[in-house]
Amino acid sequence: QGSRNPAMPATQALQQVIHAFFPDAKLPDGITELTTLYRSTLAGKRVLILADDAKDAAQVQALLPPAGSALLITSRQKFTLKGMQRIDLHRLEMEDAVRLLLTICPRLDAAAAQQIATACGCLPLALRIAASLLHNDPTLRSADYIARLSEQKRALAALKDPDSDSDPETDVEASIALSYHRLTAQVQATLAQLGVFGASFTLAAAAAVVEPDDPERLRDDLSLLYRRSLLEYDPEQDRYDLHELVRHFAVQRLGEEERAARLRYAAYYIAEAKKAEQHYLAGGDQIVLGLAHFERERANLDAARRWLQAHAGSREVDTLLIDDANATVHIGELRYTPRSERIPQLEAALAAARRLGRRDAEGWFLGNLGIAYWSLGEPRRAIGFYEQHLVIAREIGDRREEGNALGNLGNAYKDLGEPRRAIGFYEQHLVIAREIGNRRGEGASLGNLGNAYADLGAPRLAIGFYEQRLVIAREIGDRRGEGAALGNLGNAYADLGEPRRAIEYHQQALVVSREIGDRRAEGQDLGNLGNAYWSLGEPRRAIEYYEQDLVIAREIGDRRGEGAVLGNLGLAYWRLGDPRRAIGFYEQHLVIAREIGDRRGEAIASWNLGMALVGQGQVSEALGLLDMCVAYEQELGHPDAMVYAYKVAYVRKYGKWPG
C-alpha cells in the first residue's frame, strides 16, 4: 500500500508474515522485537515474501529475510537495498501487447489489437482494462473504442471499467493518481506542464516550459518524478520522457495554464530548429550536426506545430507559425514530405503572414509553396506561386527574393520543356546573385544554366557551368549543392559517351546525398548510376539501381522522378529481350508525364514506346508517338532533331527501324 496514504507500517508487514506461520501468536508492537522474531520464523525455511507496492526502502528494510529465503519487491519508486538486484519493468513489446489483448478478448482481430496496443502505449494495466472492457461488453465495437482511445481527452476515460469506482486496479487514471496525489503542489505543477511535451526532452527544454525560479529545484522535481515512476529517463541520451497515458493525465491538470505552456513549448522548439538550420547553413561537417540536432528534436517541433495550426488566429500563434516555417527553410525541404508535411506547414504560415500584413513573409511562403509543388512534378501550379512571389519581391525591393523567384521560374519552365525560356530566367537570377554577393544563389543559378544547356544537347557547355557550381559549393561548404554538381557532371559525361567517368561522379554524389539524408537526391543518384551501367551494357545491374530509385520516388511523392525511372526500367528490360515488360514500363511513364505536364518526359516516353511498338510490328500506333517526340525536339532546336526526323521517315516508308 505504498502508493496510498497512509501506507502500511513496517511493523504490520512483519506481523502479517509471522502470522502466516503462527496464526494465533500474540506479537509485540516494537520494530526491533518483530524483526528478530521474523528472522527466527524464517530461519531454515525457503520462503518467498512478496512486498507489493512498496513505499520506500525504509518500509521494507525490516523485511529482508535470512539466507535461504527471498524478498520480491514491486514499487512505483526507485530505491536500493543491500544485495538488491533491480529490474526496471518497461512497456511490453508490441508482439506481447497484442498477444495479451487477444488472450483476454479473443473477438479482436490482430489489426485492431495492434491499434489498441499503440493507443495504450503497451502499458500492461491499460491493455488489460481495454481488453476486459471489450470482452465484457459485446455491444462495444472495436472500431468505436479505438476512435475513443485516439482522442487525447477521452483516452483515460476509455481506460476505466465502468462497473468500478476509481479502483486503481481497473482504472488507469486512478492508478496514476495514486502517485500524483503523493506529490507536493509544486511537483504536481511541474508534472502538469511537462504534459505538453510530445516526445522525450532535455532538462533545458523542461526549464523553458516550466520556467522554475530555481533550476536546481527543477532537477530535484524531475528526479522525484523519476523515482515515483511518473517520468522515464534515458541516461545515455540524458533525456526525459512521459508515458503517453501519464502525458494525457498531466496535461488535463493544466487547466487555464495550458495555452501559456504550449506557447513556451512551441517557442523553445522553434528556436532549436533555428539552431539546426544555422549549423546546416554553416556547411561542411556542421551540416551533419545540424541535421542530427533537428532529428533529435523533430517530434516535439512537429507536435508544437500541430497545436499552433489548430489554434491559429491570434498574433502570438500566427507569429510562431511564421517563425516555424522560417526556422526550417532548408532542413524542412530535406526532411518533410512535400504534400503531407511541407505544404500544410507553408500554407499555415502563409495564412498567418496575410493576417498579420507581413508582405515579406507572404512572398517568401508563396515561393516555397511553388518549390513544394514543383518537387511534386506540378510545374504549372508552381509557376502561379512563383509569379506572385516575384511581384511581392519587386514591390518591397527585396533583390535576394527577386532572384530566387526568377531562378524558380526557370526551373519550372525547364521542366515544362522550355529550356531556352528557362535560360532567360536563370541569367537574370545570376546577375542579381552576383550583384548582392549571394554565393549560394550564384551557385544554384550556374547549376541550373548547366541543366538547361544539357537539355539543349550541349553537354560540354553544361560541364563548364557545373564545374563553376562545384567550386562555389565547396568554397561555402554547401554539401547539397556539391552533391547536385557532382551528379550533373556525371550526367554530362554520360552524354559524352564516358559512362565510367560518369559512374565516379555519381558515386561521389550518392555519398553526399546519403550523408545529409537527401532522399530525393539519393534517388536521382541511384537512377543515374543505373543509366551509366545501362550504357556499359549491364542492364541487370542497372535494374538494381532503378528499383531502388523507384522506391524512393514513390516514397517521397516525386511523380516526375517516378516516371523517369519507369522509363529507364523499360529500356533495361528491352535490352534484356523482354519487350512486353518494357512496353508496360514505357506506358506507365507516358501516363505520368502527361498527367503532370512534363513535356520532355512525355517526348522521351513517346519515343521509347514508339520504338518498342515498331519492334512489335505495331507501326501505325507507333508513328503518332514518334512524331510527337520529333516535333518537340524541333521546337527546342535540339541538334539531333534532324536525326530523329530521318528515323521516323524511314519507319513510315519501310515499316521498320533503320539498321
Description:
A hairpin with a 4-residue loop joins strand 3 (232-234) and strand 4 (239-241). The chain is mainly alpha-helical. It is elongated, with a radius of gyration of 33 Å. It has six domains: 10-75, no CATH class; 94-174; 182-253, Winged helix-like DNA-binding domain superfamily/Winged helix DNA-binding domain (Arc Repressor Mutant, subunit A), CATH 1.10.10; 261-434, Tetratricopeptide repeat domain (Serine Threonine Protein Phosphatase 5, Tetratricopeptide repeat, Alpha Horseshoe), CATH 1.25.40; 438-553, Tetratricopeptide repeat domain (Serine Threonine Protein Phosphatase 5, Tetratricopeptide repeat, Alpha Horseshoe), CATH 1.25.40.10; 558-659, Tetratricopeptide repeat domain (Serine Threonine Protein Phosphatase 5, Tetratricopeptide repeat, Alpha Horseshoe), CATH 1.25.40.10. It is built from 33 helices and four strands. Helix 21 (399-415) runs parallel beside helix 23. A two-stranded parallel ribbon has the order 1-2. A two-stranded antiparallel sheet has the order 3-4.
Concise overview:
The chain is mainly alpha-helical and 659 residues long.
Output the CATH topology of the largest domain. Serine Threonine Protein Phosphatase 5, Tetratricopeptide repeat
The radius of gyration is: 33 Å
Indicate the percent of residues in helices.
over 70%
Low-confidence stretches: none
Strand content: under 5%
CATH superfamily of the largest domain: Tetratricopeptide repeat domain
Side by side, the strands of the main sheet go: 1-2
Instruction: Determine the oligomeric state from the structure.
Output: single chain
Question: How many strands appear in the DSSP assignment?
Answer: 4
